[in-house]
Amino acid sequence: MLDFIKPWIETFQEFLFLAARAFRNIFRSPHYADDIFIQMDVIGVGSLPIVILIGFFSGIIMGLQMGRALTTYGAQGQIGQIVAIALVREFGPVLTALLVAGRNASGIASELGSMKVTEQIDAMRALGTDPLQKLVTPRLIAMMFVLPLLTIIADFIGLFGGALIAYGLLNMTWSEYWSTAWRALIYQDLAQGLIKPFLFAIIISLVGCLYGMRTTGGTQGVGLATTKAVVVSSIWIFVITSFIDPFFFT
To answer: What is the per-residue pLDDT across 140-183, written as a single tens digit (0 to 9) for each?
Structure first.
């Protein structure tokens, strides 16, 4: 039993050490601002099309399913409230994080893993450059900045998708839908919808960097590290949201 648990404990310990050093490097020089902006472009702008698509169709799907149920009870006027709360509190942050994890955790792990197996990281150390300062911290900062913004965009696009269903199928006016949607949201909903993507960003970036930095075994090892990064980050997204939700349960 202990032999089975030991690798998980060792990996989690490595993750904590990596996180501590990465956050410490935020306040240390050099900061490699160019790398940070490059990663913002790769992660944020590169993920924008799929985030818009998933947000839009999530709003449409929720509008269709909830609209059908509410029409049975003559409460279709509450569709804006339900779509807004579901998107902002749960589906927007989680779905956006899963898409970004699938696209960028794998990219980070494969990029750093390729550098590891080709000994580029060892060359950086030989030249006096801290690999964590150069490779990990810029990706952490970029992810923490862009993932909440991507979540906000996904939430708004999802609300727009729900508005199309409310207007086209439920005979609601635009003003009726948007007024009920905005009134349904309180500060706790907005706080939950912004805290989650910030924590998800830390997990996605550091998990990708962790498995990339500890890659071994050539190209086969790079593929294995990429797969582990996506799977582990996706699991932790659900674990974190399940721990956060009770604190905002009202």
So the answer is: 999 999 999 999 999 999 999 988 888 887 778 888 888 888 88
Task: Phi first, then psi: give them for residue 32, nearest 5 degrees.
Answer: 50, 60
Residue 250: which pLDDT band, with cuts at 50, 70 and 90? Answer: low
Contact 227, 107 (CB under 8 A): no
62 and 82 in contact (C-beta within 8 Å)? yes
Q: Which of 181, 202, 199, 183 is nearest to 191 (CA)?
A: 199
User: What phi and psi values does residue 101 have, to the nearest 5 degrees?
Assistant: -65, -45
Q: Are 142 and 43 in contact (CB under 8 A)?
A: yes
Give CA separation, 57 vs 5, 136, 202, in Å: 40, 33, 27
48-91 pLDDT, tens per residue? Answer: 999 999 999 999 988 888 877 777 777 777 788 888 888 888 88
What is the model's pTM?
0.89
Q: Which of 136, 142, 146, 139 is nearest to 47 (CA)?
A: 146
Residues 6+ apart with CB under 8 A from 108: 139, 205, 208, 209, 212, 229
